Amino acid sequence: MAQRRSAAAALDYVAALSPGTKANCWSLAESAGHEGQYRMQALLSSYRWDWTELRAALPALAVAWIPDPAGDLIGPGIAIDETAQLKHGDATACVAPQHAGITGKVENCVTTVFSAYVTASGQAWADFGVYMPERWARDLPRRRAAGIPDDLEFATKPQLAMNQLGRLTAAGLPARWAAFDEVYGRSEELRKQAAKAGLAYAAIVPCDYMVTMPSGTAIRADHAVKDAVFERRSCGNGSKGPRYSDWAMTATAIKGQCLLIRRLISRPGQLTFYLCWAPPGRPATMTYFITIAGRRWPVEETFKTGKDVLGWDQTQARSWDGICRHTALAALAQLRAAAIRNALTGSIALPAAPGGTGHDGCVTGGDDHISDADLQIPLGDSPVPARSGQPCPPGIAPIKLSIAETARLAGLARQYAAGLITRARLAFALRWSLRRRRHQAAARWHHYSARFLAASG
């Protein structure tokens, strides 16, 4: 950004994206302490800065701020999927009636394809591209009214994914695998690009996708089920415990490639098919591919964070640049929250607020009654059961800070440092944070126990 005011507004914008703040320029400006909405509006419209440069910086920030724990079986990777912003009217750039995964039906929406950088310790957006429907690509006057560049060509969603994969590998992202949903998994060009980049992949394909077996016979993916031998395995831990399913794997005619089949325990008739491949030197085993398949889900977590925590889908921007600028800033905010959470160790004691006493009309008791211990934020994570039937420990430790809770606490810290809230009000908020995290820890314990019981049945 060439001008200081642009950079300052962008930093305020990113910091203001938080739980409880609508992601429109008026609410963000108020949260940032601006005397008016104009700087935030100008940031998305008239300020001179290139959002593609910020997008290009995301991979390096992701690597720096989301650590890759030693000893992880598959290492860091890329999970690609799409999500939608529901809209009213037809003036917003690229809005059109199209399938929206968030509702499962056709909606008037803008669809964006995201690539998330995923490690065993976290995930965040590392690249993105707004999908321009064909009706927009053919309508030059409408494109110009929405600020869509004349030289922007129509690209399918798999082509957008290929563009992102190319940018990420060119940027040196240390990914070792890629995971795709069905829209992208059926693209042979995308799978070949991943293989050429040396990325193992687990790509969901439809049940009628034709797969060539080692014998040379081409069959539908679902026709491989009758000869499959299933094993009960977990593809990773979720918020409610190990994600157990029944899995089977069979080789295909392509060296290093196999067809992986997932069958749900609760609904045996619901099957998911993955084409998987690993480069030479990698373990092309069921455990390896199941782990990659399980790491696709964190991209859904980034959508939940983007919408529920940062309000990504609440923007009122209508122009092409406005939408892309907002998305780039939301991606930076997501990385910022991940960086804050991953940088925290031990317990945190917030310092005294500089100047001012703040104001609070709801919390009783003065600051004199608040000790330093009342301003501690306990970190770490709570235990989980090793098997079903284990009783939940009394006074269980709080769960690890989530991105949502991290963003909430970061907002409180900003208000406290600015003297906008008292020590009493801050201590009150921290007590509620601790209650939430302990309740979540107890709930997770019981969910894990129930999952273990269901998997053993």
Give an account of the 3D structure.
A hairpin with a 7-residue loop joins strand 11 (257-263) and strand 12. The chain is globular. The protein is 38% helix and 21% strand. The protein has four domains: 1-49, no CATH class; 50-181 and 296-343, no CATH class; 199-279, no CATH class; 344-456, no CATH class. Helix 1 crosses helix 12 and helix 7 packs parallel to helix 9. The chain has 457 residues and is an alpha+beta fold. The strands form three sheets. Strands 1, 2, 3, 4, 5, 6, 9, 10, 11 and 12 form a ten-stranded mixed beta sheet that branches.
List the helices and strands and how they pair.
Layout: H1 4-16, H2 25-32, H3 38-44, H4 51-65, E1 77-86, E2 96-100, E3 105-119, E4 122-130, H5 134-138, H6 140-145, H7 157-170, E5 177-180, H8 182-185, H9 188-196, E6 200-205, E7 210-212, E8 218-220, E9 231-238, E10 241-251, E11 257-263, E12 271-277, H10 286-294, H11 298-309, H12 320-343, E13 347-349, E14 376-378, H13 403-417, H14 423-456
Parallel strand pairs: 1-5, 5-6
Antiparallel strand pairs: 1-3, 2-3, 3-4, 6-12, 7-8, 9-10, 10-11, 11-12, 13-14
